[in-house]
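This section describes the prediction task in plain terms. A model, or a person checking by hand, is given the sequence of a single protein chain and must write out its three-dimensional structure as a string of tokens. No templates, partner chains or ligands are provided. The sample shown here is typical of the held-out split.
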Amino acid sequence: MRSYHFRLASVARIRTIEKSVARDRLMIALRELRNAQERERSANAALACLEPPAGLVSSRDLQWKYEQAERLFDSVRSCRENAAEAASAVVERREDWNEACKRSQVLSKLEAQAFAKWLEDALHQEVSEIDDLTNARFAQGAFR
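The expected answer:
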């Protein structure tokens, strides 16, 4: 199996983009949920505004009111189902965003660890060079 080597900065940049995309998708899902909930409230209000017939009513008017109530009730049911689907989409998108955040944080920790190791190595190399220079001076007899 061939092993691939990627620079940590490149992978971190990709993870940041993935996190941003996941966040955008979550925001879109939340907006769709709010819109679905608003449509549901409007449909409920329209159904609540439908008043029963008063006084003498023909069978045609009564049939129209019944059909109107059925249509409004179907609309409410449809809006409720859409809101439930939008809510489940928000849950999925939030999980995707949380996962992207975790992956991005792992890379941030790895990057911090890599920087700390590089700094430690650089300081160790500097101390080693200073020791070598000091030893070379004493070996040449510069301090006699």
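For orientation: The first helix runs from residue 8 to 49.
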